[in-house]
Amino acid sequence: MTICTLETLVKERARCEAQGLRVVLTNGIFDLLHAGHVEYLTRARALGDRLIVALNSDASSRSLKGAQRPLIPEADRALLLNALRPVDYVTVFAELTAERVVAALRPDLYVKGGDYASTPDLSPDLSRLPEARLVLSYGGEVQLLPYSTGRSTTTLIERIVTVYGRDPVTHDEASKKNLMVDT
Question: Does domain 6-154 have CATH number 3.40.50.300?
Answer without folding.
Answer: no
